[in-house]
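# step 3/5: fold
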Amino acid sequence: MAKVEYQAQAGIELAALKKKGTGEVDLMRPGNGTPWEDRGSIGSVGAYFQTALKSLTSPGLLMDHIRRPETTDDAKLFAMICAAMWAIGTLLWRVWYYRQVTAPDSGFDVDPTFFWITSLVACVVVFGAVWLWMRAGVGLYSKLAATEMRNATPTLTYNLFAYSLGPSLLAVVPVFGQGLALLWIFIDLVVAGKKRLYMKATSAFINPFILFFCAIAIGAVFYYVGGVLVWRKALSMTGVEPKPPAPVITGVHK
């Protein structure tokens, strides 16, 4: 790999060098460090929230500051915390939904035992979906982007995916939070491809778009087969059923 003409400070974007044709950018260069990588000095809780905030406000800078792109140790733990945020968000959404269906005029009969069993299963499924995203998603993205990230290792892609999950903090907001989190994660992946992997703008957008399309399609099939056909219809485990219509009493006319 050819060396660039001069040494830039760690954490500073080198896109200008690439445009000038001075050499191939080293995608595995260490940065100044993310807040999560510095959690030993600022504390894990503060580091998590600072990292999540940066993923919402300045994802390009966050990706560029990764200090240890050659290992996934830090990224794995951060990704698992983000997965926990999705599980917590799912539980909070179920709490909100429970209040809606148990209202006097809701029109539903609720079995609390089945309802909360379903809620627990949903939290586990959501957590597992994030784990699967980090496994299968990273692998597929690496294949899609192979021609544009020749000197990058799968560990760098894993780090970028992990820090792109920072917007998962929004998933704890009931009703609209999870949809907003998904949109922001998509934006972070686009930024990661363009600003950290120096892909073409079209590739930086299309690669995560394909991933999200596949994930949504697989999720829809899983929800219909597992959630609707098996859990709801075959096992009747949802705990929420529409109230039967009240019997119509007709008057007797003499």
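# step 4/5: annotate
The longest strand covers residues 108-110.
# step 5/5: archive (pending)
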